[in-house]
Amino acid sequence: MRNACLVMALVAGLVPDLARAQGTADAYFEFLMARRFESEGDNRAALAALERAAAADPASAEIRAEMAAYYARRSQRPEAEKAAQAALALDQNNVEANRVLGNLYASTVEASTQQRPSPDTLKALELAILHLERALAGQTGTDANLLYTLGRMYTRSGATDKAVQVLTRVLGQNPNSMQGRLALAQAYSAARDLKSAIAVLEEVIDEDPRVAEALGQYQEQSGLLAQAAASYTLALQVQPTNRNLKFRRIAVLYNAGEYSRAAGFAGEARKQHPEDVRFPQLQARSLFDAGDRSGALAVMESTARAFPKDTSTQYALADLYSDAGRTQDAERVLRQVLAADPNNPNALNYLGYHLAVRGDQLDEAIRLVRRALDAEPNNAAYLDSLGWAHFRRGDLAEAEKYLGAAAQQLPDNSEIQDHLGDLLARRGRLDEAIAAWTRALAGDGSDINRAAIEKKISDAQAKTR
Known about the structure:
This protein has about 475 residues and is mainly α.
């Protein structure tokens, strides 16, 4: 009797373990069936099998991670996220669940086009990095796709050293990965190492011209304008109808002083894309600076007639008239723009500044720019215009108030710093004027005469000795 009781007790003690073993076996069977059903395209049966597997083994993180991956493959994000979180509640380091969540959060970050990321995007970026790092840490091998995504997230977060390290590993595994190479170049660029960004792409440009567009952008940023034009030309062989590539090639040639080539390409693009006003504007500007003033004005006047409501075209025509010494024609065009749109702040500022530069009708110039500032009180370009109008009228204290504010907002704007230097020199503060003119020479270089500024600095230094 005692032996019988002992046997019954032993059997009773084994029942839970046997039940768990049976549950695990059932779960594993359903897990395998789910994969089979999915491979056969029977998604409903696959999901049902996964649900039976989860019911058979509620402690399995792997099954819930598999469910998360299943939902992710079908772009069912809420369900994928919920299943992955359930898996991580059972095992924080589950590789598949972390991979799914890392990729989901990374997709949120990649989809954001905001210049200043929202708090939600920044949180998604933080979580993407967390889960991708965990997924990679738990792997026995190395997943190049995870490395690539993590590298992209490091770049977005500003951790450029980590981005370069991770993306270099991607290229080490797959030297022919164009996306990996582009991402590594972007990481170098974000780290302000344009030389390395260019080198990464130059390694493969002959074999893979698809990288030519990005290479051209980095060369352009580095001031290598001739090389950038060559890269954009190569990129256009891959994308012959890409008008933005055409625009960039013309722009770098113009900025390199190759006005005739820029005008030629702009003329071709103008015929190919007659609705795009950028190309006649570039053609006219290039012709003008190449010495063909009549040709430039003919192009711009015909474009202005074809696009009478396009303000950028009217501004470009006014610019050419002004540069050609036809200031009355420039004023006429700008007044026509204002007649059509009396409260346009850009037009108000444009005409006001034109009058200020000309040096007459200064009271009207001030009234016009003040109206522009009523619409945009902190616009540095408008502040500069108002300050310059006061300067031309001799109101030096008022001029300094506005020019100083504009220069503080845009310290790299060469024209504004030049204006401030002229004002300070007029007020007898030569050391400060020299500093402002020096900033003008070191700035963006737009709309200034470098030789004239250098002479002003030299003359001021002679007076201070």
